[in-house]
């Protein structure tokens, strides 16, 4: 009898966990639906069937163009600046269709960041087309956050690229179609199409024929 009571108690606990999990999942889905309906109106353009997990920071949404069938994760930071301490810019951040951007990712843009179709970007990936100041001695006595923003060129990520978790894509880089960027890679130069790169700085590991 004692064993039966223990089994019944365990079954009751599992049932409660299952019910609570289903309730939590349903609530989370409902919140995402309402949040997506609200935030999509902030962008210059947002296509159909896009889902947003929740931005930690969203700056300059009027310069962001989004395609259809996108998934954007939670705790994402997108910073698109048209002005900084008297400087003015004409920025553009764009995504094609059928792409995803993982939780905790960060994009900063003053020039152009263009992401193609069918691109998968892992969690905590950093993409930037700019930096605080150039590598000039005259600037190094100024606090970094007060230095002028400088772009070395746009970032272009072509179709069907896969970028692993915690990779960094630096200014002036083009990642060719079908390329794979390994986790934790720091990409400072162009990546040819259909290649695998990894490391810091990222180097070609192999060409995928």
List the main descriptive attributes of the protein structure presented here:
globular; six-stranded parallel β-sheet; alpha/beta; twelve-stranded mixed β-sheet; 209 residues; UDP N-Acetylglucosamine Acyltransferase, domain 1
Can you describe this structure?
The chain has 209 residues and is an alpha/beta fold. It folds into two domains: 1-42; 43-207, Hexapeptide repeat proteins (UDP N-Acetylglucosamine Acyltransferase, domain 1), CATH 2.160.10. Helix content is 18%, strand content 35%. It has one helix at residues 2-39; strands at 45-46, 51-59, 64-66, 71-80, 83-84, 87-88, 92-95, 100-101, 106-109, 112-115, 120-121, 126-128, 131-132, 149-150, 155-157, 162-163, 168-169, 174-175, 180-181, 186-187, 195-198, 203-207. The strands form four sheets. Strands 2, 4, 8, 9, 11, 12, 16, 17, 19, 20, 21 and 22 form a twelve-stranded mixed sheet that branches. The termini are far apart.
